[in-house]
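Troubleshooting: if your tokenizer reports a length mismatch, compare against these two reference records.
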Amino acid sequence: MSGKRRRRTYDKAFKYEAVRLVLEEGRSAAEVERNLGTGRGIVSRWVRELTEDQDHAFPGKGHFKPPEEEIHALKRELERVKRERDILKKAVAIFSTEPERYSGS
């Protein structure tokens, strides 16, 4: 068997509890990581994420924080508009090179 390790996911409640152990009970992040069996630096990152932005910490897999969500949606819309513009440019080029061919007369 190969040495591939499957990436573990943790739910929001698990992350909050791990952070609570560090912040409220005064345990070290390394100790909590060993006890919970998480990777090195994971709990430290969770503590940092929660302390930096309590309202939007741990948005979940495939989700962005609200400001990032808006940027992502605007980028998608910009790509769509660019595709539409390119199609219109091609249509104008086709109709302007041979106008009588497409006029129906």
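Reference record two:
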Amino acid sequence: MSICALFIQGGGEGAHAEDEVLASSLKRALGPDYDVRYPRMPDESNPSVEVWGRKISSELSKISGEVILVAHSVGGSILLQYLSGEKFGNSIGGLFVLAAPTWDDNQWNFDDLKLPGEIADKLAQIPRIFFYHCRDDEIVPFAHLALHAAQIPKAITREISHGGHQFGNDLTRIAMDIRGDEAG
């Protein structure tokens, strides 16, 4: 039986096609023991917490057993918002968030994406939470990694020296963490 990894794309016109390269990289790096699912999110050029939340809920309802959640960019922000408001059991084996903006900074201030102050408590039952960000990200400032770490102290943060917003289209490092490989 394979482990399901649900990959949530980023937002913006063409994001599904652009992030498909990331989802494919993750699938290759994880290997045959993982079923990587990559649904198209609705209205990608105008992401909505409510609409994307319904799609995430629909996708999760199709999965039996444990799921690994992986999300990129705005998809990560929306997934965090979704998880902060939903009741979920112990079925989430890990949360892996890539280059997600945090919406509590002065320049990224959107009320519907601000996380509640108790976000760390709401995510406490997820056994593994990782945030990744490339230092040379040209879309979301690298400083957002530290903002996420401050909100969710249990999370492990991974600073990646280069790869830009798309991680050089190589998610091998993330796959290693998902599998629990010993690595530096």
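Descriptive notes for reference record two:
- The first helix runs from residue 15 to 30.
- The longest strand covers residues 92-98.
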